[in-house]
Design a protein that fits this description.
Structural class: alpha/beta
Strand order of the largest sheet: 3-2-1-4-6-5-7
Helix content: 25-40%
Largest sheet: 7 strands, mixed
Order of helices and strands: EHEHEHEHEEHEHHH
Length: about 220
């Protein structure tokens, strides 16, 4: 049986999502990020194959959030360098938790479904990837072992992760699903999230409800 850990990097709630600053105020941005993180963690708790969930952060507020959610948390040793932080987290999980598989799920993919993640883990071999809806960033990465490849989380790392898998002679599995492709960084992304208000499943997500209550501050 695999020892699989999900890793969710969360930089902060306060001051997060600066690209949304032109349309919503800081308090609303913090509420939105908190809601998205809640949605992601809730879904991860229902993924039957997971041994554990680890939130990686340098924020005291997010550490408190992790404890309230009853999940493992780890202090970010390289605050500001997400790629390096996640590589360090991979090494730590392998050494301290004997993890053989790491699944990285960003906190801003609020529509992710636990059913999709469970099905994906059932099919996973060595490297599994999903991009954002622009085909640029990496919205899901599963690696066995956790340090299988060097990581690139600069907003444009999907093709880099794909190439690094190919360089090892692997054929990465690519996941295509709208629920994992949407991440929320811009006003356009926020509008897409709001469009799910009437969806029978996603309309009840905390992040969708919050997004529909946020008014433009400018």
């Amino acid at each position: 049986m695999r020892n699989i850990w999900a890793v969710v990097p969360i930089k902060s709630f306060i001051g997060a999502k600066k690209r949304l600053a032109r349309v919503i105020d800081p308090k609303s941005r913090a509420a939105l990020v908190n809601a998205m993180a809640n949605d992601v963690i809730r879904e991860l708790k229902h993924v039957r194959q997971l041994t554990g969930i680890r939130i990686v952060t340098a924020s005291d507020e997010v550490h408190a959030f992790a404890r309230a959610e009853g999940v493992d948390d780890w202090h970010d040793p390289l605050s500001g360098d997400l790629s390096g932080t996640l590589e360090a987290a991979a090494e730590h999980l392998a050494a301290s938790r004997r993890a053989d598989t790491m699944m990285i799920v960003p906190c801003d993919v609020p529509l992710v479904r636990h059913e999709l993640l469970a099905e994906t883990l059932d099919r996973h071999e060595s490297l599994t990837l999903a991009s954002d809806d622009q085909g640029e960033g990496t919205n899901l990465l599963i690696a066995s072992p956790p340090n299988l490849i060097r990581l690139c989380y600069d907003g444009h790392g999907f093709r880099t992760h794909l190439a690094r898998g190919h360089a090892l002679g692997l054929t990465p599995q690519i996941i295509e699903d709208d629920s994992i492709h949407l991440d929320v960084d811009t006003a356009e992304d926020l509008q897409k999230l709001r469009s799910f208000e009437a969806h029978p499943r996603y309309g009840q997500a905390e992040s969708v409800r919050i997004s529909c209550t946020i008014q433009s501050a400018y």
